[in-house]
Design a protein that fits this description.
Length: about 525
């Protein structure tokens, strides 16, 4: 047993009871079932055997040696630090591990694993990471969350501040999808979407390998975080009013995915509100299209009440059905949101136009800027703008309202694609990192298992949960298979068929194995 293994087992004995109490139980579900797959003969790979390794394993190669777990009596453990899923480790180190794997798997079942320690702290759009059930993957499509993972963490977080999104906080080893710009000697960077580098072979060769998954700790100022272009369901969805069934209830024409109703929904998200149990209203500026809103309400069978003030117009309607339904659909204040149905076949360009008509104003360079106090609503507006191909900016701000307890807010700006700081490239939106900081953190961190793509967006950037036995363990297991006589193509296909199609989703790892 090497020195690191001995030290690891000693630390494991000290931390096991704390681990079982603090990490191994999430809610009422014991997190004791390892994610493991038999690859070939006695070779297995897995994600997180916590808190204990099954008793039939005689050997364990632990690639994340800081995670304590219970080992069966008589099991030999080799603990080696492969820090993250991004950069390729030393080839000599990998070959030594592969040879050790081949030696031990002749003697009995061997598990190669790594713990999914890297997680992003925060929320995804439009719900928090602890509760979200459907997320936007790296392909821009919606995917089901298959599992919520969490564990205690005490250490540093990497804080990434980029143009186009709010600051993103992540544990250092969590992979994010990043485009690293080509840097000429002297520091000049070749931006990916500019035509000036199209005939420079070294630059072209560089961008053929981008984007790549890189751990948060590797990201540098000037790198680009990658945001996919969201793709929403195109099948139109017609929502139903929440009626009470009272005999005196006034019927309301159903909303439909037409331009007028989409515009009205966006306008209400920006400047509308529920007033008691029987009324809703819009507060509009002098420049807002009050005539269009009045016409839409009348066509829906509603009677608008219009009151002109010095600097604004208040339009309200009395309807218990509308009041009850809008409260359910939109929420209020810092929890306000766009209803889910607008992302199912509704004209989002009109939804965005309605929102801009309420809370937006024209900015320089033909940009539209809007402010809101709801982070969820701000992320929805940002996602809609990206889905329409706009360039987006986003920053936290506090509006000077005169109230001491005024809510902080988020400002979102969007415009036609520009060639200034952000960029559109390969149908993805690139957000340049302006600042990389570290901050101390102690508490719970979270991660997601996502169907099909094993990725999700957080703060607009694309994150991967590929540490769950898919990259580091796949790299070592694949190299062991190749060194035992298997061809690279056969070894990679075997890993993916037995373990998961997402094995070796890091292209650097796959290219290395295929080059052997």
């Amino acid at each position: 047993m090497d020195e690191l293994s001995a030290e690891f087992l000693g630390r494991m004995a000290d931390l096991t009871s704390q681990h079982i109490e603090g990490i191994a139980v999430m809610g009422n579900t014991p997190f004791s079932c390892p994610i493991i797959s038999q690859i070939d003969g006695n070779l297995w790979t897995g994600g997180c055997p916590a808190p204990e390794v099954p008793s039939y394993f005689k050997f364990v190669l632990n690639l994340y040696p800081w995670m304590p777990y219970i080992v069966p009596a008589g099991t030999e453990v080799k603990a080696v630090a492969l820090y993250d899923d991004s950069g390729l480790p030393s080839v000599d180190k990998l070959e030594g591990l592969a040879d050790w794997v081949n030696e031990k798997r002749k003697l009995g079942p061997l598990l190669v694993h790594c713990f999914p320690a890297g997680t992003l702290v925060g929320g995804t759009t439009p719900a928090q990471i602890e509760t979200i059930e459907r997320v936007t993957g790296a392909d821009g499509l919606l995917h089901e969350v298959t599992d919520h993972l969490s564990h205690d963490y005490s250490g540093e977080l990497v804080v990434l501040t980029a143009t186009g999104c709010l600051p993103i906080r992540s544990t250092p080893e969590h992979p994010l999808l990043v485009v690293r710009p080509y840097r000429f000697p002297g520091g000049i960077m070749a931006k990916p979407n500019l035509p000036s580098w199209q005939h420079v072979s070294t630059v072209q060769a560089h961008y053929e390998t981008e984007p790549q998954w890189r751990s948060a700790s590797e990201i540098q100022v000037g790198d680009y975080l990658v945001a996919p272009r969201p793709q929403w369901d195109t099948a139109p969805l017609v929502p139903e009013w929440l009626t009470t069934g009272h005999r005196n209830e006034v019927p309301v024409v159903p909303l439909c995915p037409c331009q007028d109703h989409a515009w009205m929904v966006g306008l209400f998200a920006a400047d509308g509100g529920v007033m008691g149990d029987n009324s809703v209203g819009w507060t509009l500026s002098r420049t807002s299209d009050t005539d269009r809103l009045i016409s839409i309400l009348i066509d829906s069978g509603l009677v608008p009440r219009v009151v002109q003030y010095a600097n604004f117009t208040r339009i309200s309607i009395n309807s218990r059905v509308v009041s009850r339904t809008f409260r359910e659909w939109f929420g209020k204040s810092t929890a306000k949101r766009l209803p889910d149905f607008v992302f199912h076949g509704w004209p989002l360009r009109e939804v965005l136009a309605g929102y801009a008509a309420g809370d937006g104003y024209a900015h320089r360079r033909n940009a539209t800027v809007a402010y809101c106090i709801s982070p969820v609503l701000a992320e929805q507006v940002r996602s809609i703008a990206l889905s329409l191909g706009h360039s987006v900016t986003m920053w936290q701000t506090r509006r000077a309202s005169g109230y001491a307890n005024a809510h902080p807010g988020v400002t979102v700006g969007w415009s036609n694609p520009t060639q200034t700081t952000t960029a559109w490239w390969k149908d993805s939106f690139l957000m340049p990192v302006r600042k990389v900081e570290r901050e101390a953190y102690s508490g719970t961190v979270h991660n997601l298992e996502v169907a099909d793509v094993e990725s999700y967006t957080v703060g607009g950037a694309t994150a991967h949960n590929c540490q769950a036995g898919l990259n580091r363990s796949g790299l070592v297991a694949g190299l062991a298979l190749i060194r035992s006589g298997m061809t690279p193509a056969v070894a990679i296909n075997l890993l993916r068929s037995k373990r998961s199609p997402a094995v070796l989703c890091n292209p650097t790892f796959e290219r290395f194995l295929r080059s052997l």
